[in-house]
Write a structure and sequence with these properties.
globular; two-stranded antiparallel sheet; about 20% helix; alpha+beta; 1 helix
Length: about 90
């Protein structure tokens, strides 16, 4: 499963835009693919997306997650957000 984390850009020349960091879930665990080289306007979530809040983070998927997928995503979110925040 491929995942992207968007966060408000802190670059002074990109205020109001978003940075994107990409990840993929592999059998060995979560792998960081890298940060997109461009900034984005606020990404639009498709109207038919499934929305859920997990640990104060809004998550959108195009398919309904199984209980196992949701459990794994909960675990991945902490690691993904650490990578984005640099903690």
């Amino acid at each position: 499963m491929h995942m992207s984390v968007y966060r408000a850009s802190t670059s002074t020349d990109a205020l109001g835009m978003f940075s994107r960091e990409d990840f993929v879930r592999t059998p060995q665990g979560l792998k960081r693919l890298g940060k997109a080289p461009v900034k984005f306007l606020r990404p639009e979530v498709p109207a038919d997306a499934k929305r859920k809040v997990i640990g104060n983070v809004e998550v959108s998927t195009m398919t309904e997650m199984s209980e196992e997928e949701e459990r794994q995503l909960r675990a991945d979110l902490a690691e993904m957000l650490r990578g984005v925040d640099g903690r």
